[in-house]
Design goal:
Immunoglobulin-like; mainly beta; 4-stranded antiparallel sheet; about 40% strand; 3 domains
Length: about 400
């Protein structure tokens, strides 16, 4: 009798353990995204997760052209290829073909851009030859107004100091036109550290310290020292290049054009790098790809003269465009997108080469296209109508 009771107790204990273990395993499967399927296939189907976050919130999420949910939501999906589209009134739509993998989260963090942006002036008396510093913190330009000659001269805008209040008052006159010197007929070249400006006017060259107001007595023609200055700047370029590439794999560094550190630019999170290829090459796998690696088509065969984005964490490499067809390419802070000018248009594009969108159509070729510090606007040079002077404007993005 005792043996029978013991066997019954053991059976109960093992049954409870079995159900606990089985229940725990099933709950684990559900937590990993498995779903019950009573119609087709196995009892439990492996799924992946789609997480979509948008700025602004509340955009509609379409999957294969069918409304699925709203953004800032996570849904289970069977593994496979899908067409994902994000739509919100007043904003350009976002679309991408994605691949859902079992037990893997596909995250889409999306910045939607305005479809009807605001255009606001920064300058009113014209802006000639606006030039951005290598550190993206300064802009210089010249003014040569026939109606407001007292305002003519060389101006500086400290972009890094005005992330939230870029307007006409931000521009500072650092050097008026002097007798025999008209800054509007000059070309501007920043030093690699962005502290000095080399101004070439006819056959003269002036090296200006941008931390001080320039008086005529301070102007010295450095043409005789020009070769030495450029040699010193070349050394600084090499130092900056080494500093910018010290976190990159040698295989990537070997492909980047080494003539200027300006050929390298990181996004705000420092996990993606824009670079200009200096030579052809084949980019082999550098790290073990993470499960959630981007499934967009890569460009592992690199061509000289093309811009690429390399994702340091994912070991993915995407072609953007040839250097000969675009200008002023820069990251838009707070997003995974870049902005550049192409012909008379200003375009945005995602880091993986998708979602190319026209942000603005200018009336001049290769318009300035520079993103503001907080990524909310673009600075450009244009005229609102035929015959109007070209001025600096901001174009709102979000």
């Amino acid at each position: 009798m005792s043996n029978h009771s013991d066997r019954k107790s053991l059976l109960i204990i093992f049954s409870v353990l079995f159900f606990v273990i089985a229940g725990t395993y099933i709950l684990t499967l559900f937590a990993r995204g498995y779903q019950v399927n009573l119609k087709n296939g196995p009892f439990l189907n492996a799924t992946g997760l789609l997480s979509v976050v948008s700025r602004p919130k509340g955009a509609s999420v379409y999957l294969n052209d069918k409304l699925l949910t709203a953004t800032d939501d996570t849904v289970n999906l069977l593994p496979g290829q899908y067409s994902l589209k994000i739509v919100k009134d007043g904003y350009l739509s976002w679309q991408k073909n994605i691949q859902i993998k079992k037990e893997v989260v596909y995250s889409a963090n999306i910045q939607l851009f305005k479809s009807v942006p605001d255009l606001k002036p920064i300058t009113l008396s014209g802006a000639i030859n606006p030039t951005i510093s290598p550190d993206s913190g300064k802009m210089v330009y010249a003014v040569a107004s026939a109606s407001a000659q007292k305002d003519n001269g060389l101006y500086l805008i400290e972009l890094a100091d005005n992330p939230l209040n870029l307007n006409r008052s931000s521009a500072k006159l650092i050097a008026p036109n002097f007798p025999g010197i008209d800054w509007s007929n000059s070309t501007f070249t920043f030093s690699p550290d962005s502290k000095n400006l080399l101004v070439t006017y006819h056959n003269a060259n002036y090296l200006l310290d941008l931390n001080t107001t320039i008086l005529q007595k301070d102007l010295l023609d450095v043409t005789s020292k020009l070769a030495t200055i450029k040699a010193e700047w070349a050394v600084k370029e090499i130092e900056l290049f080494a500093l910018k590439t010290n976190k990159l794999p040698p295989a990537i560094v070997n492909l980047i054009a080494t003539d200027s550190a300006r050929n390298i630019s990181y996004n705000q999170e420092d996990n993606k790098v824009l670079y200009l290829a200096g030579k052809d090459g084949n980019l082999d796998q550098i790290i073990t790809p993470p499960p959630a690696q981007s499934t967009q088509i890569q460009s592992r065969q690199v061509k000289a003269g093309y811009y690429y984005i390399y994702d340091i964490e994912d070991d993915t490499n995407f072609m953007i465009a040839p250097k000969t067809s675009i200008n002023n390419i820069s990251w838009i802070n707070g997003t995974n997108s870049l902005v550049y000018s192409e012909g008379k248009t200003i375009q945005s594009i995602e880091y993986d080469g998708t979602n190319k969108q026209t942000m603005f159509v200018s009336n001049i070729d290769n318009p300035l296209a520079y993103p503001w510090v907080d990524g909310s606007r673009i600075i450009t040079l244009t005229a609102p109508y035929l015959g109007a002077p070209t001025n600096l404007y901001t174009i709102s993005l979000r």
